[in-house]
From TrEMBL:
Residue span, GS catalytic domain: 1-254
InterPro entries referenced in this protein's UniProt entry, alphabetically: Gln-synt_C, Gln_synth/guanido_kin_cat_dom, Gln_synth_cat_dom, Gln_synth_gly_rich_site, GS_Type-3
UniProt protein name: GS catalytic domain-containing protein
Coiled-coil stretches noted in the UniProt entry, renumbered to this chain: none
Sequence similarity: Belongs to the glutamine synthetase family.
An MF annotation (GO) of this entry: glutamine synthetase activity
Length: 363
């Protein structure tokens, strides 16, 4: 990221680290490649030429599957942010359901949902913790299967592998993870589909996840609570900044531009009616199409103002503030965006004060 910034600055450009800078266009994210090795450098996720008899590989593999099965919700928490929320589940971005695609070849796992401007440190911490907990479960199952024997036999290992292959069936998916059908299938399998950030943040304090983190001495309960509150506060503040920026842009640039263009159309239609006797001129037709959208935009700005005011009233409660941002600020911004987008296609270029989508993306 540092190199990108320096090269961009050198060439008088700017890097857009936002995960979804343009609606309707593929977003941006990090692919977090993860694997484990021994102290001598052996990759524990290398299946070798005979994976069917590489029991160490198979035991590690089912442990990772078990980790995602048990703590997929916490992995979803680790990549939750106001900007990444726009990206997940849309336009070839990873879905909000965390699953595992094994494929035909394996040497590492790739956590593809990390945001483009996010440090991978917290997602990797969560993944490491989940796998550590899963390895403990696999080890305990293997000891139980050994029934006091000094060494695990191949039969013991295969029995444990078989057990965890069966218990992790729900989290394994080899199909199209971007499809609506997968979301329905995930629901049928009982996998969590956590769509909003406040929902994701709550997973941090879920007893199943919190107990795992505290037992491994990665976070204390107070540290988890602190992180939970900070994540909610950061999310609400990010959306509040975006909402205020949008409100300023709409009220001070877009709306005045449409007023001016409406005035031009009204004058033109009036002149044409007086001079040429045109009752239904193209100018009048455009004015009639424009006017409802201008009123709609004005209404969405009012709704946005109300949502912003609501957040200011509850700023002392980060959780309530984050939920209000998700439930009120985001819908208000989407409604305002919809009206502004339609006005962009109708307002003459001479009057439109900012670059259009077509100018930003294609010219």
């Amino acid at each position: 990221m540092d190199v990108l910034s320096k090269v961009a600055h050198k060439n008088k450009l700017k890097v857009l680290y936002h995960e979804k800078p343009f609606k309707g266009v593929n977003g941006s994210g990090k692919h977090c490649n993860w694997s484990m090795s021994t102290d001598s450098g052996d990759n524990l996720l290398d299946p070798t030429v005979k994976p069917e008899t590489n029991y160490r590989f198979l035991l590690i593999l089912v442990a990772v599957l078990h980790a995602v099965q048990n703590h997929g919700g916490l992995l979803r928490t680790s990549i939750a942010s106001a900007s990444n929320e726009h990206r997940l589940g849309a336009h070839e971005a990873p879905p909000s359901v965390v699953s595992v695609f094994l494929g035909e070849h394996l040497s590492e796992f790739e956590f593809r949902a990390v945001g483009s401007k996010q440090s991978p440190a917290f997602p990797v911490t969560v993944l490491n913790a989940a796998v550590a907990s899963a390895l403990r479960d696999v080890s305990e199952a293997l000891r139980t299967q050994m029934a006091g024997k000094p060494f695990a036999t191949d039969s013991d290992k295969l029995a444990v592998i078989k057990k965890f292959i069966g218990s992790t069936k729900a989290v394994r998916f080899e199909g199209d993870g971007y499809s609506e059908a997968w979301l329905q299938e995930a629901e049928r399998r009982g996998l969590p589909n956590i769509k909003s950030c406040p929902e994701a943040f709550a997973q941090l304090l879920d007893p199943a996840h919190a107990n795992m983190m505290t037992k491994l001495h990665i976070f204390s309960q107070s540290e988890l609570t602190s992180r939970f509150l900070i994540m909610n506060e950061r999310y609400a503040k990010d959306l509040l900044v975006e909402a205020n920026t949008m409100r300023t842009l709409l009220a001070q640039q877009i709306l005045p531009a449409t007023f001016e263009y409406r005035g031009f159309l009204a004058n033109s239609a009036s002149l044409l009616k007086g001079i040429a006797g045109e009752e239904e001129s193209p100018e009048l037709a455009t004015l009639k199409a424009l006017t409802p959208l201008v009123k709609e935009l004005q209404g969405t700005i009012t709704a946005l103002d109300e949502s912003i005011a609501e957040l200011h009233q509850i700023h002392d409660d980060p959780v309530a503030e984050a939920n209000a941002a998700a439930n009120h600020i985001l819908p208000a911004m989407r409604a305002a965006r919809s009206a502004a987008d339609r006005l962009e296609t109708l307002t003459a270029d001479k009057y439109y004060p900012i670059p259009r989508y077509s100018e930003l993306l294609w010219f």
